[in-house]
């Protein structure tokens, strides 16, 4: 090894000038790397201060990176890492023989002033690595834009660039690691205080549905909630209602309650969702809006409703076939620009995983649910994902969904904090109108038909929200009022409305 030692009395970033002999030099600090290695050779215990974030590839000088990795490996084995022991190690390992000689290692140790600044040296090296990675990322973005790949649209290039940039930002975050239990305890007490001020009911974001809020305590940050059901049960209606109710509460309370909401609608267009909300707020049936069967008075209702809707902080992305990485990138962007507090995904099975998952749909769904949970934790917001159920529900006499009906992957149940099923008995009853059986008396048929009619009347416009899993609270069923013509769920104002 012929590397010449540089003075390390003053550790400075020697990248203030990036021009040397008319060519650019990537940001680096050789003195900091030498000082760090020397300190580790003198005091192996100093590795504890940097081992959680510093790696071999973070060093600018590859030789220094190999030395650092050798020191770490020896310490991990419980051996002493010193110029003497490493010299022998280098001599026996042909891959490390070219890295450095024993004289260079001894020189590193001799020039150590103190080991107190080891963490500062480590952070300097790490931050310079990030700067080099940022430069490389910028060059890749430029090269990709110039190449004009026909399979990669400019919008996709931007999303990939944002994803890489956020990944680099996460890599440079030192905020992870252990926190004192006392700090966690203070946060728990603050949550309890909030619950006390709200009379123990709502500590999270309101859904706009009283009984559901009481059961869940609102929507809580970092939670992934699954709202699942068979087609026509009202999943999209529920998701849009919750998003709008939370955004409306945010608007009316001046930001003290509710949340800015974002809806990723992979199935319906933004215009269709807007029509549903318009039907809800204006009390004009959605099918009449769609068919144009409107009265003059309806337009006055639209004007009044539009004044509210235009002010509500709610955003809709109706891009089809989004990947989970694209959802994460767009949610981050909206968090940064609009401070969103709630994300709705309609629906989970229409999202795509990475190309790595290939044709394995179970693996792909597992990747998607992990990604949704990661979004909730990273942005510190609740994420609600709507989900389809398997056809097994239809083959049973009792068609109330259960956890085993979650479609395609057990990871949906595993990764979620709350699993809710929507069930409307009215939907199935209306399709099972009794027919007279052969050899059945008229009286018996009339008796069966009357019983069916009575039951239809009992469950008319009634929906059940079955909370099958709640990581931080009780499970149970809630009865709600469902008005399909106005595309909305509301509270069922009867005694013991949440008891089934």
Question: What this model shows, in words?
Answer:
The chain is α/β, with parallel strands linked by helices and 500 residues long. It folds into two domains: 19-171, DNAb Helicase, Chain A, CATH 1.10.860.10; 200-419, P-loop containing nucleotide triphosphate hydrolases (Rossmann fold, 3-Layer(aba) Sandwich). Helix content is 47%, strand content 11%. It contains 18 helices and eleven strands. It has helices at 30-42, 62-76, 83-92, 94-97, 102-110, 118-147, 154-171, 181-197, 210-216, 235-252, 270-282, 286-291, 296-309, 324-338, 361-379, 411-415, 425-429, 442-459, and strands at residues 19-20, 23-24, 224-229, 261-265, 314-317, 342-346, 383-388, 418-423, 462-470, 476-483, 488-491. The strands form two sheets. It has a nine-stranded mixed β-sheet with strand order 5-4-6-7-3-8-9-10-11, sandwiched between helices. A two-stranded antiparallel sheet has the order 1-2. A hairpin with a 5-residue loop joins strand 9 (462-470) and strand 10.
